[in-house]
Amino acid sequence: MGKGKLQKFAEMETFSNVFQYPFSVIENVPFEMKGHWREQYFHNDNPIVLELGCGKGEYTVELARLYPQVNFIGVDIKGARMHKGAKEALTAGLSNVAFLRTNIEIIDRFFAKDEVQEIWLTFSDPQMKNPRKRLTSTYFMNRYRHFLVDGGLIHLKTDSNFLFTYTTYMVEANRLPLLFRTEDLYHTDGIDEETRKILSIQTFYEAQWIARGLNIRYMKFHLPQQGELVEPDVEIPLDDYRSFHRDKRSSLETSK
Q: How far apart are CA 251 and CA 237, in angstroms?
């Protein structure tokens, strides 16, 4: 591990807005704030919104600035990246922001039933070879049901046609209430001003993708707690490009 990363990890240990519970830790130490985020950390009764796979935390921080009456928690396992957003939130005095460093596969160990109102998935790895690792898979949807309110909102913002197409099929196969969907976010007419304000937040890498001429896709849908979820059985063309700081994508032509 590089010296810069070690310094960031050491500094994050002192951040009051960061909670570090990777899988190796949570197995031995229960997370006592589960079900008590509002009273023990935020000290209010405001809604809680998660950004899963928050990276540098840019989206989490900007949403918190836009909506001071909402609590935002960025979740990622990459601590060196998270350091940037966590430090920025502290410097800006944003009391409605927290960061949780953990594996998203065990996200339901940190939040109690009905504790979360919305989830944002911003530029998640499409995981083209492994459906169970996709953050919009039914595997994860069932995990989200453990803590998301009935009918809670899921937002997906992505550069990946593969992930967007897969999620579209998943929503259709399970008849989840779709509120909005666009394959070209920044060239779509009729988006209301409130939604446009939220979606105008751009991360560093998003700006890079836009500069490369890639469409940014977005959808939002409700996730009811009732009903068995089924995986879509479809072949989807793989993305034919490599995103920044992602492993090289598969050379296969299609995947389920």
A: 11
Tell me the binding residues for substrate: 159, 203-206
Q: Which of 114, 125, 189, 240 is catalytic?
A: 125
> Which domains are seen in the chain, by residue range?
3-255 (3.40.50.150)
Catalytic residue at 114? no
CA distances from 10 to 28, 80, 98, 180, 225 (A): 22, 10, 18, 42, 40
Residues that constitute the known binding site: 51, 76, 103, 125, 159, 203-206
Helix (H, G, I), strand (E, B), or coil: what is residue 122?
Answer: strand
Query: Are 135 and 54 within 8 A, CB to CB?
Result: no
Amino acid identity of residue 29, one-letter, is V
Q: pLDDT tens digits for 110-148? A: 999 999 999 999 999 999 999 999 999 999 999 999 999
Model confidence pLDDT, tens digit, residues 29-84: 779 999 999 999 999 999 999 999 999 999 999 999 999 999 999 999 999 999 99
- pTM of this structure: 0.92
